[in-house]
Amino acid sequence: MRKEKKGTQITIQNLFKQFGQTTVLQNIDLTIEQGEFVAIVGRSGCGKSTLLRLMAGLEAPSSGDVFVEGEKVAGYNPETRVLFQESRLLPWKTVLDNVRICTENKDKDQAIKALTEVGLAEKEKEWPRVLSGGQKQRVALARALAADPSLLLLDEPLGALDALTRIEMQDLIEGLWSEQEFTAVLVTHDVAEAVAMANRVLLIEDGHVAMDIHIPLARPRIRDNDFVYFERKILDRVMGKNVEDEYKTVRKIEYLI
Ligand SMILES: Nc1ncnc2c1ncn2[C@@H]1O[C@H](COP(=O)(O)OP(=O)(O)OP(=O)(O)O)[C@@H](O)[C@H]1O
Ligand SMILES: [Mg+2]
């Protein structure tokens, strides 16, 4: 049975992360509220995965602190689950056993319930190698959610999937998030994906949070003018343009022709 709890809060204070002489993240102060769905975007190498790994306790800060539910993050936390670009399933275990190892007491019913939630209960006896890329990611999602985490960290989990499977997975993750109320942090290079899924988007640039924007769009999200407005606003900031100026230019051109 589900525990009565909601997602966890993350607080980051004066965080710096260096690798050798290179400062990747600097002076980050950030609070992510319980149950939020936050997307982190930014150019390749800007430090998105590093920030996520710091939240997961897979990296230690050079200075500053990361707190999850008020507790300083120091290594593995069973309440936090991470989904990576590759599914990382164990090839010598069946689908069911891959999910089962992450449940409390290797609970079979809990594992089957998680597989049912991602629509793959009928694959429980299969080996990972016979699954498609999208199916493997769904098993990885079931494994992440089987233990009923309060924080789900996603590092480009849909990056290797084809466009249609990607949209299906976005809907699935969004649906499970709104139903189970965990806090979700999604790293993605795809701004449209960030706007489709998150209620808040952070842009990392020069080691800090350069843009922190709320996405007040209703769900399920459709690609209407409001959606495109937020997408362009973020994209243009990444590209160093000003969306308001550009709209003025477009209007001017429309007027001229
Ligand atoms: N363990 C490490 N040792 C040394 N440098 C590292 C390490 N991990 C990351 N870096 C460096 O830190 C910077 C940020 O890396 P990170 O993986 O966080 O970027 P990213 O924004 O996730 O990029 P991408 O979009 O390509 O995945 C890069 O310059 C990378 O080379
Ligand atoms: Mg990365």
Largest sheet composition: 6 strands, mixed
CA-CA gap between termini: 63 Å
Shape, per Cα inertia axes: globular
Report the helical percentage: 25-40%
Number of strands: 10
Mean pLDDT over the full residue set:
91
Which regions have little confidence, pLDDT < 50, spanning 5+ residues? none
Bound compounds: adenosine-5'-triphosphate, magnesium ion
Keywords:
single chain, globular, binds magnesium ion, binds adenosine-5'-triphosphate
Q: Can you walk me through this structure?
A:
The structure is a single chain. The chain has 8 helices and 10 strands. The protein is an alpha/beta fold and 257 residues long. The protein has a domain at 88-148. The strands form 2 sheets. Strands 6-7-8-3-9-10 form a 6-stranded mixed beta sheet, with helices on both faces. Strands 2-1-4-5 form a 4-stranded antiparallel beta sheet, covered by helices on one side. Helix 3 crosses helix 4 and helix 6 packs across helix 7. It is globular and about 55 Å long. Adenosine-5'-triphosphate binds at residues 19, 24, 42, 44-50, 189.
